[in-house]
Amino acid sequence: MVTGQRGRPRSFDRDAALDTAMRAFWERGYEATSISDLTRELGIGAPSLYAAFGDKRKLFDEVVVVYGSRYADFAAVALAEEPTARAAVGRILREAAEIYTDPAHPPGCLVISAGTNTTSADVADALRRRRDDSLAMFESRIRADVAAGALPAGTDARALARYAGAVLQGMSQQSRDGATRAELEAVAELALLAWPA
Q: What confidence tens digit (pLDDT) does each residue in 47-72 have?
């Protein structure tokens, strides 16, 4: 976004521009958000966009980092703060129900949905790596609980982590399809019933 007053040079508000670009990518995904969409919504010309961010891909990469720090770090925080993997995953799923349905921003998770149907293998791979990193965090915490005796010795940590990730990804899509916070909270509680005793 461009701000300024008469008689002064106009200045570029980079943070506001990132917020606007994040909303565009979150709503439409990487592929469906064009440079012309971005320049129109940011209120700048293409040369200014390229000067500030490089290109669409570099802008998207920066948006994903900002998105992660504002909307996706709740999973890492829960895994660090909760006493067990089950408690952490329960908290993550409940917080996802709240975040994914918050009317203050587009529904769902940008990292889960932005790469859907993209023809850019680089974008798809980058988003997949971020999701895989989340699964690795889940798996590590589950393995720690197995080692500590908080979960049965035969627990398949990888499968349980993938299960939690699949529920989270499904909740993201369900929110984009109109599921309410209460409906997703109910999904979260049901998902925990599958957790090993």
A: 988 999 999 999 999 999 999 999 98
Residue 84's SS3 state is: coil
C-alpha neighbours within 13 Å on the C-beta side of residue 54: 8
Question: 């290109």: which residue's tokens?
Answer: 55
The Cα-based distances of 1 to 16, 52, 105 in angstroms read: 6, 11, 18
Evaluate whether 78 touches 88 at the Cβ level (below 8 Å): yes
Q: Mind giving me the DSSP string for 109-173?
A: -HHHHTTTT-S-HHHHHHHHHHHHHHHHHHHHHHHHHHHHTSS-TT--HHHHHHHHHHHHHHHHH
Is the full-model pTM beyond 0.85? yes
Residues 172/115, Cβ–Cβ less than 8 Å: no
Cα(118)–Cα(80) distance, rounded to whole angstroms? 33
Determine the angle formed by the axes of helices 85-100 and 157-176, rounding to 10 degrees. Answer: 10
Helix 46-53 and helix 56-67: axis angle, to 10°? 60
The string over 115-149, giving b where at least 16 C-beta atoms fall within 10 Å of a residue's C-beta and e elsewhere, is beeeeeeebbebbeebbeebbebbbebbbebbeee
